Amino acid sequence: MTFFPLPRYATLELTGVDRIRFLQGQLTQDVARLDAAGVLRAAILNPAGRVLALAWLIEREESVVLVVPDELAASLAERLRRYVLRAKVRIALPGEALAIAGRASAPGEQPPGGARHQRLADGASLLTLPAGGLLLAPAASLAQHLATDDGAGAAAWEGAEVAAGEPGVLAATAELFTAQMLNLDLLEAISFTKGCYTGQEIVARTQHLGRIKRRMFRYRSDEPVSVAPGEALNLHGAKVGEVVRAASEPAATEILAVVSLEARDQPLASGRGVRFAPLALPYPIA
Predict the structure, then answer these.
(1) 229-267 per-position pLDDT tens digit
(2) Coarse DSSP helix, strand, coil percentages of the chain, rounded to the nearest 5 percent
(3) CB 56 within 8 A of CB 168
(4) Which among 30, 73, 171, 189 could bridge 41 via Cys, Cβ 3.0 to 4.6 Å?
C-alpha cells in the first residue's frame, strides 16, 4: 500500500494521567469513548461556540494523539496549555517523531472492515478514515511506506476529503463557523451527553432549539479554478455562504461551503463570477 507525505497535517501528543479528563473539557467529542482500535473526530471551540480547529484522535501507547492542520498546530498547543492549570498533562508537538502520510480512496472505493486504528508491525499507526488512510510514524520509519511525491498525493487526499463531505478549518476560517454549520453533529463529532466543555452551551442551545439555519454543502465547477477558504459565495448578487475547503482537478473544482438552507439547492457564484452547481453529499441533511 503506497502513501504520500501530507505536510499540511501535524500531530499533537498529550500524555499524563489526566489527559482524558483534560480533553473532555476542551473537545466536543466524548474522549472517554476512545480505545486503542478506534478513531474519533472532534472540534476545539472558542467560548462563543465557534470552531477553532478540527482533529482526529487516536490512542498510542500512554498518549492521545490529535491530527490537526500543520498551520494551526503550534497555536493549538499553546492554547491548550493555558487550560492545563493543575492537571497532570503534557502537550507536545512531536514533529518528525510522529510524521503523517496519506492514501486517498479511489472514487467508489469502500473502506476496509476491521479496526479503524491498527498498529502495524513496525509500530506505525494506520487510520482508516472516510477519505482514505492516514499513516502516523516517525519520519525515518515512515519513509519505507512512501512513494515519490510530486504533490499529486496531497491533492488527491484533498479531493477525497471534499468528496467525503469532511469539513476542514484553517487559519483563514478559524472562529468563522459553528459546529453544526460544519455538520459535525451529523458526523458524530459532538457528544450531547458527556457534560461541559468550552463552547458547549452554544452547541447545545443550537441543537435543542432547532436554530440551524446554515449547513455545509458540496458544489462543483467545470473549471479548474483557485478558491480560498472563507471566500464568499453569492446567489443573485447577495452573499449566502462561505467556502470551507476546495479541491481542483485538471478539468473541475469541487468545494464544500457553508450556505444558508434557503440557497442549498441553487447554483452559486464566487466573487470572481465562477459558477458552482450543487452536488450530493455522502450523508443526508434534513
Answers:
(1) 999 999 999 999 999 999 998 899 999 999 999 999 999
(2) 20, 35, 45
(3) no
(4) 189
